[in-house]
Amino acid sequence: MTKARTPRFYFSLRSPYSWLAYRRLLAEYPDIAELVEWVPFWEPDERSAAALTGTFPYSAMSRAKHLYILQDVSRLARQAAVPLAWPVDRAPVWEIPHLAYLVAERAGLGREYVAATYRTRWEQGRDICDRAIVAEIAASIGVDPDAAASAADDPDLRADGCAILERICRDGVFGVPFFVNGFNRYWGVERLADFAAELRARLVPATGLPAIRAGTVGLGRSSDEGHVGGCG
Question: Per-residue pLDDT averaged across 153-176, rounded?
């Protein structure tokens, strides 16, 4: 399967809905987690945005939506019996943790970095845009802490990051979690079941994946057009 046709899971280390989808993906659809390409999504800073050829498909959420997400995510976390500690973002630069993911991925530890970073942000409430915390996360999983903490300053990683942002634009990813399979797009935690069902149905003859469990229900998205368990 070529990279252009590989099913994709767009995730953001910033988004609580992406975090919940990640947990569900691993717990309920481990075969799908292994099959898909994991692609980070983040809002570009001025330097990254200036390098893009198009307009990044993201709009800031309203105060009303922000307050709703606080309530909704807290409810979903309780339902899933997941510990939740809300972080406080002070002038975040999202290239810092997300380009560090590229460092970890190249070391073969991308999944471990995602797990540790989600835990740090959503279970411990810590600032993952703090370079010292990124270095701590990297060291804990065996990744070069200096390389991870300084990833946003590396011109090659910046270029690779911009290429990912261009892919986000081409795929029309306006929020996370976002799943892509061919021409089909799925946005939100509760769309994961549909994405997995389609993927399994198409690939069963080739890979022998088990049929999806009937009646699976997803958890509960962000731009101001609506809400289906995802975040912009």
Answer: 95
